[in-house]
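Consider a protein example.
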Amino acid sequence: MHIGDASERSGVPAKTIRYYESVNLIEPANRGENGYRRYTENDIRTLQFVSRARSLGFSVKEVGTLLGLYRDHNRLSADVRRIARDHVEEIDQKIDKLQAMRRTLTHLVDRCHGDDRPDCPILDDLAGEA
């Protein structure tokens, strides 16, 4: 099947498929005599795997490692678990940072009168004047 069909079946945009090939995340598709990429059912499964992993926030590098483990039938599930656990820790750190940002912004919004006066604690804080 051609890239458009592979894109539709996998849910991965054609441009993204080309990108994944360019960064060696997935094997480049075989090409027909006409030069068009030709994808197999196995390629579709790989694209779905990559798409799902990316939707969970794994980096391209992490997805590459996970793909390698997926293909290795002698893998240790402990290796997969470690990668996922480390990723959860990264997510938790991001959540903590986002919550801190939210608290700060909420505090600034609460201090701002939001009226016709030019004084604004939000702008003062952004300018480092608070």
Observations:
- The radius of gyration is 23 Å.
